Amino acid sequence: MKISVIITLKKDVLDPQGKVIHQTLDGMGFDNVNQVRQGKYFEIDTKEDDPKKAKDKVEEMCKKLLANLVIENFKIIEVN
Amino acid sequence: MKSSVITFPGSNCDRDMDVALKKFGFKNKMVWHDDTELPKSDLIVLPGGFSYGDYLRCGSMASKSKIMKSVINFANSGGMVMGICNGFQILVETGLVPGVLLRNKYLEFICKNVFVKINNKTNNYFNKIKNDVLEFHIAHNEGNYFCTNDQLKEIEDNEQVAINYCDQNGKIEEKFNPNGSIKNIAGILNKEKNVLGMMPHPERMIDNCLSGEDGSIFFNNLINNLK
Q1: What is B2-226's CATH superfamily?
Q2: With a cut of 0.85, is the ipTM above it?
Q3: B96: which of B6, B22, B63, B145 is 20 to 30 A away, CA to CA?
Q4: At a CB cut-off of 8 Å and minimum separation 6, what does B198 contact?
């Protein structure tokens, strides 16, 4: 079973990379952008077949390793 | 006094730290990250470098390595653990000290000498040190100390800020903040004050011919405090 996870920076955390990407987009003529925030995306192929169990395990992975909850939020976005 | 320096894959300041510790009288042992037991030590050092290539987040992989279970137990039972640079990043990932280290504010790798003001001398690292300001070296890409407002309040209430970036006279201002750290924080202690994480490298300032002597002041004071 494959599960996807998106990690994003929390609202109040400075994202200098996102800021520079925003400025670059601006410079390229994409001048209608309000803000850019950069994050991370994971695809996890697990041996677990039960969607609920698989999701719970991935949630645990997020809390213990994939995300740092002081600065990041995670979202498990896809189970198929 | 016995010390141990942990080497992770990608550590590159481990041998410098070994030289520094021995120079000031420590009997130091090098410990590989895959070991499970620590040699008997009065001080454990997590050195600088780029453990695991800074994958995922700096220090995150190293914080889960085998030896870290023993290091965490050692720290939780009151043992002295000091993390320098990448070692500091590993410490925040273990949760032994609060907060995180983000990418530097201006996205530059910073490599230069800085001055730091000692904020708290009620711990074994800085107790009895005569200087209020020390000149250390920094070399990092992710040294921008960040924590939540609640954490910051707790850190300040418990006097956990160890050192702040400042000028040579000890003035702490934004213009002397190299990386965007909250309140110019360069180093932080745990609540019990036995764990210290800091971005600057004292081990790079132990020879007047090469750099400076302020690291010597730090290590001399440290070993005397431990005796």
Answers
A1: Class I glutamine amidotransferase (GATase) domain (3.40.50.880)
A2: no
A3: B22
A4: B82, B83, B84, B85, B88, B162, B163, B186, B187, B188
What are B14-29's pLDDT values in tens digits?
A: 999 999 999 999 999 9
Boundaries of every domain in chain B: 2-226
**Contacts of residue A70 in chain B, CB cutoff 8 Å?**
99-100, 146-148, 151
Report pLDDT digits (tens) over B78-107. Answer: 999 999 999 999 999 999 999 999 999 998
Rounded to 10 degrees, the C-alpha dihedral B181/B186/B190/B193 comes to -150
The DSSP annotation for B112-127 comes to EEEEEEE---SSTTTT
Chain B residue with CA closest to A40: the answer is B56
Assigned CATH class of A2-79? alpha beta
Which amino acid is located at B145 in the chain? Y
